[in-house]
Amino acid sequence: MAGQRRSAVDRSANSDLAAAFEDGSAYIPYLAVGDPSYERSKAYVEALARGGADIIELGLPFSEPIAEGPTIQNAIVRALEGGMSPELFFQFVEELDVDVPLVCMTYYNLIYQYGRTAGDGPGPEAFVEKAASAGISGFVVPDLPAEEADPLRAACDEHGLDLIFIVAPTTEGDRLERMMQRVSGYVYVQARLGTTGARSDVSDQTTASLDRLADYDLPKAVGFGISGGKQAERIVANGADGIIVGSALVDIVADGVENDEPTEAVADRLETLSRELKAGAQRGYEARQANVDAK
Amino acid sequence: MSTDGKFGDYGGQYVPEALMPAIEELTEAYEQYVLENKDGFMDEFRERLADFGGRPTPLQRADRLSERYDLDIYLKREDLLHGGAHKLNNALGQVLLAKYMGKERIIAETGAGQHGTATAMAAAHLDMPCTIYMGERDINRQRPNVFRMKLNGSEVKPVTTGRGTLKEAISETMRDWATTVETTHYVIGSVVGPHPFPVMVRDFQSVISEEAREQTIEKTGSLPDSVIACAGGGSNTMGSFAKFVDDESVSLYAVEAGGSSLRVDEDAGVAPNSASLSTGNEGVLHGARTKLLQDTAGQIMESHSVSSGLDYAGVGPELAYLVDTDRVTPVTVDDDAALEGFHRLSQTEGIIPALETAHAFGYLEEHHEELSGTVVVNVSGRGDKDLETVIEETDARDVPNAPDMSMFSGGGM
Lengths: 295, 413
Ligand SMILES: Cc1ncc(COP(=O)(O)O)c(C=O)c1O
Known about the structure:
Distance between the termini of chain A: 12 Å
Bound molecules: pyridoxal-5'-phosphate
CATH class of the largest domain in chain B: Alpha Beta
Number of helices of chain B: 16
Order of helices and strands of chain A: EHEHHEHHEHEEHEHEHEHH
Distance between the termini of chain B: 52 Å
Oligomer: heterodimer
Radius of gyration of chain B: 20 Å
Strand content of chain B: 15-25%
Helix content of chain B: 40-55%
């Protein structure tokens, strides 16, 4: 690997997220909280933890999810129709019985408005404080680029939380540098251009992004379109430190709604797919290590 | 005026990371081609606006309305621009810019279908493939416009999420853009979205006030006392106001859709109006911080207006700023008064306005006593696209100044 290692601003004290990458092949599932109901959703998230999740991304549903494809858009509609709100989301996080770090994935308006609800006027401070006390370790905010992120970054630093940024296939040069100045926890590598949604191939764009990030020493997790163990294996073998999986899991929840399946059956399928994805990621890590050893 | 994309705290660039390089590229193109006229871009734009668009549009004295209200009322006739609305000013500018930038494909959202038809016309004129996203509900409300887009060779993609109106169409167009950003330009239809769209669309539309200002001085010897324009996203509004903002003696009125009521129904997530300037509060939607119709948690409300072109939960950030700084006065006109305005302008001036535009005339009727001297009203579009809606809506309620509608009720024509 060429060049000196560049470290992002040191925020290692902020949370436990980086530690979740210790085994070299973190499995990071996503579900929309409240899809299709509060109680079911809780059983589903607990199934992800049993299936080997190292971090769980909990989606707080926003009415205009511009970065999501149809699968997660529909999940968000189901969750909102089921009554999910920021208040219930925090209650959910507090009640959740899992021993895995939790990341909140949502859109900026909900973070921004929470201050108004809390009586402080709009701004991210109140939301971050509440999230920290509920047990959230960090945030992914798909409509908040580095340029607009300083107020949220400052609030996260104050409360010891991480702020994860998405590196797109189009992110390079100054923009990448600006983002790496502000990121902590891990880097979310967007596998391809477009919106979220399950696919079966591995994009060349993923490999190119991992190459661009190779000199930065923060864990890199690849997401957008990962749906099975083989794909997880190849992505980790290609240099990712972890995989993020959303739509493939949400598809199982959607099937459960469509076929009126009992909660247990859906939870079992989520746990099974989780095991497959985690095992795939581990195989990928072993292959990468074998490669390194051989050199 | 600001070029960094912020108007006080409003504006900004709240978009997915995948779009940021395109937004930076567009910002640079805007600064070079639009602000500095690189390669003669603005000259070509002006020439095409004249030859293809039919500019300048007239400023016409409205004799009968002037008499009715004891004011000196002038109509800025954007309804006479090619396509029948102000929308072409922006669409032609952006499609031409996309060409200068070397983009290969155009996408756009549309609500009333006016921006979609303007973009489809500009794309055909400049030989660019074009896809238009339109809410399913709007497609049903605006069938003639859908057909016009298809006639010009554009693809029209129905958007079925949410209530199927403008808000969902914008979200869906942004999703397309996030996938195709390297080859595609997104022609946004109003002064909304991330920087540089609000300033760029304003600049393309400000030809309205540039002409109106000169024409008013030429015809009356002085500046107008007031300018009135309807406001959805706010592009005809900013276009009508831009060159008057520094003229402190000129009052500026942005007329929003009051819908059926200014109240909101939090539980249903519905605001039966589109009055984001008058009743909304600050938030982040579709790339910008601005005034929004939202519930206390920050979920965006479904808006409503009898005119689909005003039916949007947000508004341009610059307009929000001009309202906060008291330069622009936001006012509302409800569905009933807008319909009356529609019939009144048709009868007294022989101009059938768009339902969006009709709101401005509703305001004139209800508040003419607060106005004085010379008043310029922007006729943002003509009403042909709205005739089906007007038949239905007039039939469904008691509009005192409507013509006899009996031949339309029941079995249709
Ligand atoms: C004729 C007409 N006027 C006004 C509007 C509202 O848009 P804006 O507020 O951007 O001018 C529309 C939108 O479609 C329109 O068609």
